[in-house]
Specification:
This protein has helices spanning 3-11, 13-46, 48-51, 64-104. By secondary structure, the protein is an all-alpha fold.
Length: 105
């Protein structure tokens, strides 16, 4: 790939749209998961008795375990959301850019 072709790709409006949308979406999901993780850690730090409370008086499991599992499942769900959007919207934009590059040759 030549430098001219790279510059043409970088200047392509669909490529710029792809980069902008993908970056914005990735940063949004990253911020969401960081807020959830840090909220969990801060909750443990400042209110350990809440998550340390047993679910049932005769049981052994505390509320921290299902909340921790829910956070892990939430992270997987966000990953799935990203993959779904990447495979539908982002790949379509990428294919448009590829076809335009082939036409330039």
């Amino acid at each position: 790939m030549t430098k001219e072709m790279v510059e043409q790709i970088k200047n392509n409006p669909k490529y710029q749209e792809l980069v902008t949308k993908r970056s914005k979406f990735a940063w949004t999901l990253s911020i969401i998961i960081l807020v959830v993780y840090y909220a969990f850690i801060l909750f443990i730090a400042f209110s350990p008795e809440t998550l340390g409370t047993k679910i049932s008086p005769e049981g052994m499991m505390t509320w921290g375990i299902p909340v921790g599992i829910a956070i892990i499942v939430f992270a997987f769900a966000l990953t799935g959301i990203y993959v779904k959007r990447a495979n539908s919207e982002f790949d379509g934009l990428l294919n448009d850019v590829k076809s335009e590059v082939k036409e330039m040759k």
